[in-house]
Amino acid sequence: MERIYLDHAATSPVHPDAAKAMMEVLTKTFGNPSSIHSFGRDARRIIDEARTVIADTMNGGFNDIIFTGSGTEADNLAIFGTARLKKNGHIITTAVEHHAVLHACEALEKEGFDVTYLPVDETGVVSAADVKSALRDDTFLVSVMYGNNETGAIQPIKEIGILLQDHPAVFHVDAVQAYGILPIDVKELHVDFLAVSGHKINGPKGIGVLYAKSGVPLSPFLFGGEQERKRRPGTENTAAIAGMAAAASVAVQSMEERTNHYRELKSLFIETLKKHNVAFSRNGKVDESLAHVLNLFFPGTDVEAFLVNLDMEGIAASSGSACTAGSIEPSHVLTAMFGADSGKLRSSIRFSFGLYNTKEQIVQAAEKTANIVKRLS
């Protein structure tokens, strides 16, 4: 039985170019990048080249790129690194953020900060007008994700960035799911901080990046050495940095081709389900969402049994929510979109497409999905 991986929004296979770049470093360049001898300088050169590559992918500056251990750390560095400069104040975010942002904001609430969690409409999109209405004189941080990891909903980042030009609050964007899928220009978007992750773009796990606009204050929340211009201590993971840079180059250069392919796969999956007369609806706007994410509601099914049946058929998909102690918690994203009493919370599946997926795989996966729906509903 062929196993079909349709959970690329959770993590993605490493691209051969990224693996090659990492292996080169792992076998030939072991020096500490902070050392002044030739071994250290060799490692530093690789990091500098990677920093240039990644900065170029988002039109940022060389010194604006901070390497972190993950997208989660990048989000936390932006949020806590901004809050630590304040004794109190107001933060604006949305109800559909990744937990890297939500849990960070909840932690700050416990410290006395005031947080506004903006609602979204039934397509999962926040209103820029709501952001504007929520702004206060003491608002110092606005954090809105670019593309949602569960539904693929794309937020009006540029519109929000423009309206914040008249307010002193800094603008943080979690672009972990959008990076490599949507064109990103940090200057055009008017963002101050932007977080991305290696393993979502066919790079390695354990590496992330925070774009931090030059001149915007940021306090480190880890302490140690003076790496990353004193903003993120710890010896840099040279191999992972090289791998992420290679993956980022491929992602940006192939973006149009890949996203067109993903949209085709998404349409093919939907059309195959329709062909088999399966009852389903889409969560969010399929045509106005991240190309690789498809979140579907199957009435009368149970998400846990559904995922088990998919796995037994060799198909990897997700509910898009956290699995804890053997039970799947209702998605906070779908709850924000449809309400806590909606049946969609227990009957929705996320399929996400990526490297190595073919049309033949998608047809096969959709046909098996249709059979499972008929069996469970």
TrEMBL record:
InterPro entries: Aminotrans_V_dom (IPR000192), Aminotrans_V_PyrdxlP_BS (IPR020578), Cysteine_dSase (IPR016454), PyrdxlP-dep_Trfase (IPR015424), PyrdxlP-dep_Trfase_major (IPR015421), PyrdxlP-dep_Trfase_small (IPR015422)
Cofactor: pyridoxal 5'-phosphate
Coiled-coil residue windows: none
Entry protein name: cysteine desulfurase
UniProt catalytic activity: (sulfur carrier)-H + L-cysteine = (sulfur carrier)-SH + L-alanine
Enzyme Commission number, as recorded: 2.8.1.7
Gene Ontology terms for molecular function: cysteine desulfurase activity; iron-sulfur cluster binding; metal ion binding
PROSITE patterns given in the database record: AA_TRANSFER_CLASS_5 (PS00595)
Domain called Aminotransferase class V: residue spans: 4-362
Keywords attached to this entry: Iron, Iron-sulfur, Metal-binding, Pyridoxal phosphate, Transferase
Pfam families per record: Aminotran_5
Organism: Domibacillus epiphyticus
Entry keyword Iron: yes
Record lineage: Bacteria, Bacillati, Bacillota, Bacilli, Bacillales
Family: Belongs to the class-V pyridoxal-phosphate-dependent aminotransferase family. NifS/IscS subfamily.
